[in-house]
Amino acid sequence: MIKEFQEFISKGNVMDLAVGVIIGGAFGLIVSSLVADIIMPIVGAIFGGFDFSNYFLPLSSNVTASSLDEARKQGAVFAYGNFLTVLINFLILAWIIFLMVKGVNSMRRRLAKEKPAEPEAPPADVALLTEIRDLLAKK
After folding, report:
1. Is the entire prediction scored with pTM above 0.85?
2. Which of 15, 99, 109, 138 has a 20 to 30 A CA-CA distance from 23?
3. Helix 12-33 vs helix 2-10: angle between axes, to the nearest 10 degrees?
4. Where residue 38 falls among pLDDT bands split at 50, 70, 90?
5. Taking Cα atoms as reference points, which of 77, 40, 85 lies closest to residue 61?
């Protein structure tokens, strides 16, 4: 079982996947920062506030806090601002991944067009007859 595990780990696809997950995690943090630190403050300024992620509706009469973290400690809240922040984060990440896949696909199509199609090998009997003909021609 250990040998099978070593073979599994040593395959290129597993290592590629591991690298992809690590880079994806780091990329996710970059997109989260882009949304939280750059995009949402601009959206918040347009809609009358500076911290869009703190927009919420209290669902309990006990909630009197003005920040989302404090309000969650006091009771149930409908955190629509935080949801919108996460939704925008997802849409940006999905758009970037779409653009990356589109770029790779167009590069593959371009490379496929540049490669001349190799002629198919003749059937075995035709290849054998060709060899016999060439041998007879040399005599």
Report:
1. no
2. 109
3. 60
4. confident
5. 77
